[in-house]
Design brief:
2 domains, mainly beta, Porin
Length: 405
């Protein structure tokens, strides 16, 4: 099976787990919503292909997408709604057009999303945030012979991430109007080359229909209900993860991708102080085995003369592929989902690639009995992609009061 096909299957399995986790919680104690959105956007010209080196010989600067979204929202008049700002979460379907169908395709994204109120401006108007994460299908990826210009996207299936803010205007018991902006990123997580990624910023306007919201719910919008006192405590998250990656190697005249894929595996053990219902912070001990670390080019002229490309690269001893780091962590805790960031450095390592300052962006998805799914991405020096972190975890000493079902 090709590495590209394995990448696609891995992302599909990940999306299946995400959708199942959302479906488990879509119960009757919520307001059920159906929304549509239109998003005209601007494409950041981060690559020569986007700046005009394409079959159209034109800069690709405009994007458009249309979205259909189902969500379920905490009902007003409850302690959970007061604490989590009317949190809602659900599943979305998006269609994207980047103005170059023949080289980029017209991908479709399936994703989970969550949003909540940042501030209530009037009884019927609020400032909200929203993020989404999923997979996009139907890309026309780079191909040396069939699609050589598209050096932005290397796989038919790519991750989809977005985050933004919008104004939510309650028009009636049934209808809301949303107007705002959102940033969008597509990439394959460094599992296949090329992986420059595509980034846009979109203006969005949408309408949401609330199936079972009534007048009493609208009255409760302006009457907050106090929540029980939060039991501050220290919890401990143990996460095991694994993935695969590609690696670019420095050679004379630039960089070339090393052949094949490299395994990544590791753990994170993070004592976290829970300050309240929505925030916890702490430190994490991060152990990683990266089979691509410190891989080097022995003689890249050999494959150019007809030799075996794999013979041109050398693999270092195991001690140069292991690292142990410490990172500072912060997590925004919401119903069913937790979004976290981390900044750290390796304190024990084999040098070279592993002597680095790294950053982590992670999504944790609540599962039964204090377990969670973990989807993360590791960066080096804020710009160099490292690897995905796909795994599971368990939370010890969890004393968090559950305000929602």
């Amino acid at each position: 099976m090709s590495s590209r096909r394995r990448t696609e299957r891995g992302i599909i399995l990940l999306m299946t787990a995400l959708f199942l986790s959302v479906g488990i919680y879509a119960q009757n104690g919520y307001i059920h919503r159906l929304g549509i959105e239109g998003r005209p956007g601007y494409i950041f010209p981060t690559n020569s292909f986007l700046r005009g080196e394409n079959i159209m010989r034109q800069r690709l600067s405009s994007a458009y997408s249309a979205h259909l979204k189902y969500s379920f929202q905490l009902r007003p008049g409850t302690a959970a709604e007061c604490v989590y700002g009317g949190s809602y979460q659900g599943i979305g379907l998006g269609y994207f057009d980047f103005g170059n169908h023949s080289e980029t395709g017209t991908p479709v994204a399936l994703y989970v999303f969550q949003g909540a109120r940042i501030a209530r401006l009037t009884p019927r108007l609020s400032l909200n945030y929203e993020w989404g994460f999923g997979a996009s299908f139907g890309w026309k990826p780079y191909d040396y012979f069939a699609n050589p210009n598209n050096t932005v996207i290397g796989t038919k299936v790519n991750a989809y991430l977005n985050a933004g803010v919008h104004l939510n205007w309650i028009l009636s018991p049934q209808f809301d109007l949303n107007i705002g902006a959102t940033a969008v990123h597509f990439s394959n997580g460094n599992t296949q080359y090329p992986n420059t990624g595509l980034n846009t910023v979109d203006f969005k306007i949408g309408v949401v229909y609330n199936f079972n919201r009534n007048i009493e719910d609208m009255i409760w919008q302006s009457q907050p209900v106090p929540a029980p006192v939060f039991p501050r405590h220290v919890s401990y998250d143990l996460t095991l993860f694994g993935s695969w990656r590609r690696k670019a190697i420095d050679v004379a005249g630039g960089q070339v991708p090393a052949p094949g894929r490299y395994a990544v595996a590791g753990f994170c053990f993070a004592p976290m102080y829970n300050f309240g219902y929505k925030f916890r912070a702490g430190v994490s001990l991060d152990g990683v085995y990266d089979a691509s670390a410190n891989v080097y080019a022995k003689d890249y002229i050999t494959p150019l003369d007809g030799g075996n490309e794999e013979d041109a690269f050398g693999t270092p001893p195991l001690r140069k592929q292991l690292s142990l780091g410490v990172s500072a962590r912060g997590e925004w805790v919401m119903p069913y989902f937790t979004v976290g960031i981390g900044f750290g450095g390796n304190i024990l390592h084999g040098g070279g690639d592993l002597q680095s300052f790294y950053q982590i962006l992670a999504l944790k998805i609540d599962m039964p009995h204090d377990t969670f799914l973990h989807i993360g991405y590791n960066l080096k020096d804020f710009h160099e992609p490292n690897y995905l972190m796909l795994g599971v975890g368990y939370r010890f000493n969890n004393k968090r009061s559950r305000l929602y079902r």
